[in-house]
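Here is one such tokenized protein:
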Amino acid sequence: MRTLCAVAMACLMTLPAFAITVDGTRDPGYGPPVAVQTVETQFGDASPPGALGGSELDAAYAKIEGGRLYLLLTGNHEPNFNKLDIFIDSQPGGENILSATPDYDFFNGSVWISSNLQGLTFDSLFEADYHLFSRWGGGGSPGPYEVDFVDRAGGAAALVPGSSGVGSATVGLVSTGSIAAGAVGPNAAGTALTQPLHFAINNNNAAGVVGGTGAANQAAAAAVATGMEFSIALADLGSPGNGAVIRISAMVNNGDHNYLSNQTLGGLPAGTGNLGGDGAGGFTGTLSGVDLGSYQNTPQSLRIVVPEPTTVVLAGLAVAGMIWFGRRPKGQ
């Protein structure tokens, strides 16, 4: 019996957790959300199904597994070239207040619009190292979903690979794709990826938060199971070690990165409208007036801890112990 228990325990410790497939749909392996939206959307409500008329971030799910970070932001992304901006703090250093450099996100043949991000202030503990952003355009006939990944390197260098998703559905959009390892995009000083970055969008949600600035229906937001999903190797995030904290700040922005919506995760206080460039809905040309750290009671970044190997071992021991004690003969 002890031999059987030992074998069972070894097998349990090597079995993977619920697998996560990057397809824009929530998998059981994510577990509960790490953040749920707190305010209704002012960037349009995508309802009924297929309307494609709005952007919202309903909830965030994150999991570290197999040396990769998996991130799902449920909700919708309107096909009008608005940006989903995701900033990642995963190593020492970085910027708490974004600088105007490096140059990336080429626009209209002559302008690098990343400089419009300058002045954006994060939570006090957040220092952005990487910028992952996506766009989707084409109006009534949406083109592919596109994703870029940037190592901001403290504002010193631009490392910008990019790629497009493929595939469509009758309603909304279901698109998957990846940025290949070693891919180099415009104005790149090198590659930011040693392994492929996978992404997907399922834009068929018609539930979640509604349009407005009132308090979000958090139960409805947490019920949404589709949205924008990404998977990136920890090796391409500075190789944060066991027990390290990865912080993520996600937000819906306009196409030029200079007019923020009120859709951020973590969420803004109920009653908050679009932040714009000055924090109050005004357009200034940059995000220099937006201070996410000013919302003390609603942290504007997500927190994910890189798991220790002992977590898996202890889980295996616990399950094996239940098997052992469950099979012991009565009276022993």
